[in-house]
Automatic annotation (TrEMBL):
Upper lineage: Eukaryota, Metazoa, Ecdysozoa, Arthropoda, Hexapoda
CC annotations in GO: nucleus
Species of origin: Bemisia tabaci (Sweetpotato whitefly)
UniProt-listed InterPro entries: DnaJ_domain (IPR001623), DNAJC8 (IPR042858), J_dom_sf (IPR036869)
Highest taxon above the source species: Eukaryota
Chain residue ranges for the region called Disordered: 1-21, 217-257
Protein name as it appears in the record: J domain-containing protein
Biased composition (Basic and acidic residues): 217-226
Coiled coil: 174-209
Length: 257
């Protein structure tokens, strides 16, 4: 999770030598306490945080939105959700209700994601993959330094920098998943549109065939009647022709006085 900016006077002390595990543990605890103390912030600061430049990708990570560690229990996530939802609720920020509504929806969406066991498990898979990729990246950097005959110490040996590297990798993986999701949605919409156009074409074809059949049936009787009339007309002509051929003019008689 991205560290919350803290005032200079409240900043953490310099990182102690790695070999002093007890001192390091105390240092990390102090850092965590500072983050916890400043994690709530003011309503305006929370709204600004949730709508900051790049928030489209930052807010893909529900742990980042709710400002909790991925391994935090679900009760902690629920508690933080309630706290943030109250802070950014539009009713509590009527002077900036439009932005507050957007921030509230982001918080609510993140909680719904973590509340659901299946979606939460998928988020944890992203976190684990981010750690695995970060560890692999560190291993490759060490190998390269050794091949070059250099000190294999890397920046990520610093726990804070290691955590930041995991955070960056986590953001990248969430962004990759979102891009794949959107691409899939686009392909699905295009496929749905193509199928619908094909269905409309088929429906139009069936409609035209039905119309043709209907017109054909309706015009059949006219064709039959026309044919009968034609046949009847032909018969009359033949009959007249026969009568004409069989007609014999009367014999000429001499005129008598």
């Amino acid at each position: 999770m991205e560290s919350i900016p803290v005032p200079p006077e409240a900043g953490p002390p310099p990182l102690p030598p790695p070999e002093k595990e007890e001192v390091l543990s105390e240092f990390l605890t102090e850092v965590k306490e500072i983050e916890t103390r400043d994690s709530v912030l003011t309503p305006k600061q929370q709204i600004d945080r949730l709508l900051r430049p790049g928030s489209t990708y930052f807010n893909l990570n529900p742990f980042e939105v709710l400002q909790i560690e991925p391994d935090a229990p679900i009760d902690a996530a629920k508690k933080m959700y309630r706290r943030l939802s109250i802070l950014v609720h539009p009713d509590k920020n009527q002077d900036d209700s439009e932005r507050a509504q957007k921030a509230f929806e982001i918080v609510n969406k993140s909680w719904k994601c973590l509340e659901n066991e299946e979606s939460r498990a998928k988020c944890m898979e992203v976190i684990e993959e981010a750690k695995g990729r970060t560890d692999l990246m560190i291993s490759e950097k060490r190998k390269k330094l050794k091949r070059e005959g250099k000190d294999p110490t890397v920046d990520e040996d610093d726990p804070v920098k290691y955590k930041h590297s995991v955070y960056v990798m986590t953001m990248k993986l969430f962004a990759d998943l979102e891009r794949k999701k959107r691409n899939l949605e686009v392909r699905t919409m295009e496929e749905t549109k193509r199928k619908r156009e094909q269905e409309i074409e088929e429906e139009e074809k069936v409609h035209l065939e039905k119309e043709w059949q209907k017109n054909f049936e309706e015009s059949r009787q006219n064709r039959v009647d026309s044919w009968k009339a034609f046949q009847a007309g032909s018969s009359k002509k033949e009959h007249k022709a026969k009568k004409f051929k069989s007609f014999k003019p009367p014999k000429h008689k001499a005129e008598t006085r």
